[in-house]
Amino acid sequence: MESLDALRGFALFGLFIVHMPELFELYWAKQATDPLQLAVHDTVWLLFAGKAFALLALCFGVSFFIIMDRAARRGIDFTGRFVWRLALLALMGLLHGAWYRGDVLEVLAVMGLFLLPFHRVRSNRVLLAVAAFFLLQPLMLVRIAAGLRGADWANQPLQYWSATIPEAYLHGGFVDTVRMNLADGHGFKWLFMYESGRLSQILGLSLVGMVLGRIGFFERPARFATARRVGLAVALAVAVALYLGRAALVARVPGSEAMPMPRAMADALLGSLFDLAVMAASMLAFLIAYHGMFERALRTLAPAGRMTLTLYVAQSLVFVPVFYGYGLGLWASMTQVQAALLGLVGFAAQLLFAHLWFRRFYYGPLEWLWRAGTWLTWKVPMVRPAAPRGAAEAG
Question: Domain tally for the chain?
Fold first, then answer.
């Protein structure tokens, strides 16, 4: 299912191309005002912000199904081993989070635990109904309803709205940054994930991904050719309708100085649904192109998709010091155009690295470490055997 690897590589690119103009979360300390820079920022946000993350969550659900299904076909109950696998991912996330507070590995690891009981649910319709429930942001709906009834707690602003960029990130040293990540950044990340509805979205999309894995959506592409085209048309129609009608719909929600949150949460809910519609459209368009005339070009993303973990961590290891105070401190001077171009160059370099790496190795470095840790053995094959000399010469 190389198309799934390529799609995962596309999601990784989208996440990275958001992080770069965002200056790995420091953009908000000095936001762009120039029209060109704002146009670049807004375009990246429109196409990828919230969408690439959503696509990554969906791919996570597909991967979960593949792992569990392959083990079941060998007669193995992989549940306990998968919990251990998630624990290792969470540990990597904790370590990565000390470097960059925006780490998502830990979040995916924790949310992955909730997939385990659903794996035993046989009905795909039930799974999709549960997924729809979470994708409709039930906590936001409860807050809207409570706010309309005048509940004081429901009309308090979300806590992450008042957050500011810590001074340690802008002008502090390395130790100051790590200390801030551990003491404040970790809690802020979870607060944002909860209040923004990302946790609910991750679970819903992971369940959708699990169902797509079950029905062979990626394994048997010819069977779903019509479904991809119809789904793309529907997703684009929903995205356009939400983009054009979002403000009008939000304006219909009652609001006042004493009751501001129902309207604000309705806007957030519609924004979440817009992101899902754009994500679905981009995914389906990607797959239509992949299984059409652009397969050869899009296949180049597959190696990046096979080492997403390594490349995701490498992105912050390289570029956080570029923007943060303890490194080059370019958050104050780099424009959105420069950051986006640097992101394109950086991802191209990662893609080249991935292609060269897999000529010699079976797994990415962190992927191999994760696999070895999962099975508690160092005997996981890593290096590809060299081709016989005669065969190489013949080739």
Answer: 2
- Residue identified by tokens 């810590």 is 166
Same domain, 154 and 272: yes
Domain boundary among 234, 260, 292: 292
**The pair of three-digit structure tokens given for residue 271, joined into one six-digit string:** 């924004």
Same domain? 266 vs 364? no
Angle, CA 196 vertex, CA 195 and CA 199 arms, to 5°: 85
Residues 248 and 171 in one domain: yes
Instruction: Print pLDDT tens along the chain (395 aa).
Output: 899 999 999 999 999 999 999 999 999 999 999 999 999 999 999 999 999 999 999 999 999 999 999 999 999 999 999 999 999 999 999 999 999 999 999 999 999 999 999 999 999 999 999 999 999 999 999 999 999 999 999 999 999 998 899 999 999 999 999 999 999 999 999 999 999 999 999 999 999 999 999 999 999 999 999 999 999 999 999 999 999 999 999 999 999 988 999 999 999 999 999 999 999 999 999 999 999 999 999 999 999 999 999 999 999 999 999 999 999 999 999 999 999 999 999 999 999 999 999 999 999 999 999 999 999 999 999 999 876 665 544 44
CB 266 within 8 A of CB 250: yes
Residue for token pair 């409709």 = 136
Q: Which of 255, 275, 292 finishes a domain?
A: 292
Q: What is the DSSP letter of 28?
A: G
- The torsion region of residue 363 among left (phi > 0), alpha (psi -120 to 50) and beta comes to beta
Q: Which domain holds residue 145?
A: 50-292
Dihedral pair phi/psi, residue 221, rounded to 5°? -65, -35
Q: Would residue 338 count as lying in a domain?
A: no
Rounded Cα gap, residues 98 and 103, in angstroms: 9
329 Cβ contact list (under 8 Å, min separation 6):
170, 171, 323
Residue 320, domain member (yes or no): no
Residue 321 domain-assigned (yes or no): no
